[in-house]
Amino acid sequence: MVAYLLRRIVQSVLILLGVSFITFLLLYVLPADPVRQIAGRSATAQTVQNIREQLGLDQPFFVQYWRYLSGLVQGDMGRSYLQKTEVSTLIAARLPATLLLMGAGILCELAIGLSMGVVAALRRGQTSDQALMIASFVAVSAPQFVVSLLLLYVFAVQLGWFPIGGYGTASHVVLPALALGIMGSGWYSRMMRSSMIDVLRQDFIRTAHAKGLTRSRIILRHALPNAILPVIAMIGIDIGIFMGGLVVVESVFGWPGIGQLAWQAIQRVDIPIIMGVTLVTACAIVIGNLLADIIAPLIDPRIKLR
Amino acid sequence: MTVSAKQTSGAASAAAPDTQVLDVSRLCVSVRAQGVLKPLVSDVSFQLRKGQTLALAGESGSGKSLTSLAIMGLLPPPAVQVTGGAIRLGDQDLTQINEATMRDIRGNRIAMIFQEPMTSLNPVLTIGTQLVEAIRAHDPVSRNEARSRALEALRAVRINQPEQRMMQYPHELSGGMRQRVMIAMALALEPEILIADEPTTALDVTVQREVLDLLRDLQAEHGTAILLITHDMGVVAEMADQVIVMKDGSVVEENDTKSLFAAPTHPYTQALLSAVPRMGDGVKPAKDAATDSVLRLDNLEVRFDIHGGLLGRVTHRVHAVEGVSLEINRGETFALVGESGCGKSTIARAIVGLAPYTGRIELKGQYLEGADAQERMSRCRNVQMVFQDPMAALDPRMRVGDLIAEPLVIHGIGTPAERATQIADLLHRVGLPAEAAQRYPHEFSGGQRQRICIARALSLKPDLIIADESVSALDVSVQAQVLDLLQSLKRELGIAYLFISHDMAVVENVADRVGVMYLGQIVEMGTGAQVFGNPQHPYTQRLIQAVPVPDPLHVRMSDVRLTGEVPSPVYPVGKSPRRVKLVNHGEGHLVSRSKPEVVE
């Protein structure tokens, strides 16, 4: 177990290194010039040149990357070009809000998706199964900004059940979490449905019936733990897709998280923030996958961590 | 259930008719497809008495399993349903009661064990959990009380260290152990009826013997009525008091076991019994020593690495094949027998280049080692394989003609026109019409599909065909036909076979020479007559003893109960099993004087 964790941590560091290199390279070749953004339109060529030299942006790519990396190793993620603040401070201030929203979003996604999937599998071929699968198709296809605006319009503007935006109380979380979770719930319901149908066909389910167990026990104790295994692996991968959704949803609901931070930074080519947010996201994905891999053998004893 | 009438000798003694526990009368089961009811089981009637074993025998599609599922109320809903007749358990008609009442009966008064012990237990729950929940489903006892009863049940099925087994998961137990757990689970509540659906079909022959003995002992102890569903007439002869032979959903013959085997009246029963391969039938004189060697293995070794530790270094190795040497001559059938995991299939895979090996493989006097890829490919043309499952071995999206032609295409032989005539030829040779080339595999029956596989193997005119359990998945009557086909091809074309099988009776009927494998090594090798007529190695004797004999009058030579399991072929790096030395017992009958064991 310890050997496994050590190996995975080494792998994770290599992954983060790769992510940082590719992102840095992409930002370097980007035609947008961060210095123009900082200096403003009326700046003289001399000012622009000064700022460029000051930020070290006149250096060759590898020198720039090396500087960034050596800072990073010492815990320095650089300073924002425009906000003149440490990137680590900016991210640390916004991370709790994002983690809260992400947790709530995943909870929504799983609660809706898995229950839809299980019910559809148990009613396979019936009208309710077809209705659920159409619903999941709609959920998968609906763009997140449309879902967000729709939720806002119905539940905040028309019904007034939830606040229109902002951050602070539990009722603030509900709509953005739903907006985040609905798309994923469509995926999960389909996955759970096919996984469950597969498991219900297995011999050990027939054995459970032959033992005279109740239907609810067969489903909850025998079928569900087996059916949920592939879904767990999926959650780890899913966190990456989730981050994309965060950028949209945080902007629509005015949620002060790193998604919003990233959105603003991208518009202004604020390279240190973009780098910081990307790396934090990559960390989240790596940790999510690691967690999924550690949880899987707790459910299925046949899986050995190697 | 209380055992009121003491049974003296369970299976053998026929109980009085008033102890009838199950009465199935005129049972019909149908499937609803596109609004039409199609009968699957029609008009099946039988009675089951306390302490009796009734066998439902028949080939696939005979409706024997559906009959048992109907009794359990477990027919796959909603398409398959009981459409007539009655199933009476005591004063209840099981076809009329609701699901909740049926649930109380299942596992409690009628228990069932299934064919596949590997998949019949939930992989994510411990043995203990699964046993305890079965008991608590019907008996409102405390968890501790249920636990001690579960332990008792495990002891009753002769599982050692039951406390530890309770905490283990199914994948940590062998197939035989799992089937015992299934039996323990079924008998923990002392049901009146035990339905055993092919209980030993998936098990090795020595394990099968243990499980059959166990079932018989437990039946004698508790007076359980057993409804045995099987295709194996050997198992029927050993276990059953009464036999019902089914075909296409109907009963064709019913009689007590001795009379049925002595004088089968229905033509189908006669055909079925005559198709059963029997031990002692096929001892034929050894062939004239043709020394035209097709395949020679010299000190073949196959090992698979197991990685572990921090750096993923090799810590253990599976010694799958350990120093096997053998020779197969032209027109000869060499059979490898042994139980699962003994390495017989790995040898086949090494020969066709699917497993890494050391040692030498010589095909028609040429070594495979050292040849470049192209050279190896052309030499491999001389060896073709026929696998166990003909459904899985044929691409469902290709026409039969294309399937058979594929080896020719791969090796670039012939023009399309030439290939077409060759396909027609090959189909004719395996007894299929030429039109078959235009059809798809799913349109054929299991036996016909295996013929297609054989035709494909023949297309490259090989000298050697490796038949890896090629007839194991087939019904006996079909099995006999495919074996006949293989024999006639051998006579006409001089093909040699490496025939890999776990079925001793089949091997005895087809093999010129036999090698018995145990833990990756050959422990006995000789002509069929030598190995089966005069087995020398204790393992060979044990294997032959364990085979169920399709003759109810057969008396087992010794009632030495087989126990113990085959040890694992996994060794830490640096250790290896002791090589057995084969000693000539006379006329080329090679026997080892020891068992392969680990050397420190």
Automatic annotation (TrEMBL), chain A:
Database matches in Pfam families: BPD_transp_1, BPD_transp_1_N
UniProt domain ABC transmembrane type-1: residue ranges: 95-296
Ribonucleoprotein in keyword set: no
Membrane topology (UniProt): Multi-pass membrane protein
Keyword Aminoacyl-tRNA synthetase on entry: no
Localisation per UniProt entry: Cell membrane
UniProt keywords, alphabetically: Cell membrane, Membrane, Transmembrane, Transmembrane helix, Transport
Domain of life, per lineage: Bacteria
Signal peptide positions (record): none
SUPFAM superfamilies named in the record: MetI-like (SSF161098)
InterPro entries with a match to the protein in the record: BPD_transp_1_N (IPR045621), MetI-like (IPR000515), MetI-like_sf (IPR035906)
Transmembrane segments: 12-30, 99-122, 134-155, 167-188, 227-253, 273-299
Similarity-based family: Belongs to the binding-protein-dependent transport system permease family.
Protein name per Swiss-Prot or TrEMBL: ABC transporter permease
Organism: Ruegeria haliotis
Automatic annotation (TrEMBL), chain B:
PROSITE patterns with a match to the protein in the record: ABC_TRANSPORTER_1 (PS00211), ABC_TRANSPORTER_2 (PS50893)
GO molecular-function terms, A-Z: ATP binding
Domain ABC transporter: 19-273, 295-544
Subcellular location, record wording: Cell inner membrane
Superkingdom of this protein's organism: Bacteria
Membrane topology summary: Peripheral membrane protein
InterPro entries in alphabetical order: AAA+_ATPase, ABC_transp_ATP-bind, ABC_transporter-like_ATP-bd, ABC_transporter-like_CS, Oligopep_ABC_C, P-loop_NTPase
Entry-linked Gene3D superfamilies: P-loop containing nucleotide triphosphate hydrolases
Main location: membrane
Transmembrane segments annotated in the record for this chain: none
SUPFAM superfamilies, per database record: P-loop containing nucleoside triphosphate hydrolases
Record keywords: ATP-binding, Nucleotide-binding, Transport
Protein's UniProt keywords contain Transport: yes
NCBIfam families, A to Z: oligo_HPY (TIGR01727), PRK10419.1 (NF007739), PRK11308.1 (NF008453)
PANTHER family: D,D-DIPEPTIDE TRANSPORT ATP-BINDING PROTEIN DDPF-RELATED, TRANSPORT ATP-BINDING PROTEIN
Family membership noted in the UniProt record: Belongs to the ABC transporter superfamily.
The protein's name: ABC transporter ATP-binding protein
Provenance organism: Ruegeria haliotis
